[in-house]
Write a structure and sequence with these properties.
This protein has 109 residues and is mostly beta strands. The chain is built from no helices and five strands. Strand 1 and strand 2 form a beta hairpin. It is flat and about 80 Å long.
Length: 109
């Protein structure tokens, strides 16, 4: 009677982890991060980012079994907008796109 080889698959593991990261660089204007922890079917975490208007947006969330993704969004600080004078174009942090108009070149021999 043939026998089947022993299973090389590990028993189903209970998923569990905890991770986080953060970046804060005042000189470059960066402030963002995230953290998440999972224990089986329960997951909780948050992530945050510094918005262009100067506020810090934070999303805190959880998933408990079949509850689905439940999130709460909060803001820290007050939105700041630079004063704009007459004829001043707002700056959005990047240079205008270069303009290029190629002209066809026809070689005459």
């Amino acid at each position: 009677v043939p026998t089947s080889p022993p299973s090389s698959l590990p028993p189903q593991a209970h998923p569990q982890y905890n991770s986080q990261y953060a970046v804060k660089d005042d000189y470059a204007g960066l402030n963002f991060g995230a953290q998440e922890a999972r224990d089986g079917y329960d997951t909780q975490g948050s992530y945050s980012v510094l918005l262009p208007d100067g506020r810090l947006q934070t999303v805190t969330y959880y998933v408990n079994g079949d509850s689905g993704y439940v999130a709460e969004v909060t803001y820290e600080g007050e939105a700041q907008y630079p004063a704009q004078g007459y004829g001043h174009q707002p700056s959005y942090g990047h240079a205008p796109a270069p303009s290029y108009s190629p002209r066809p070149s026809y070689g005459h021999n």
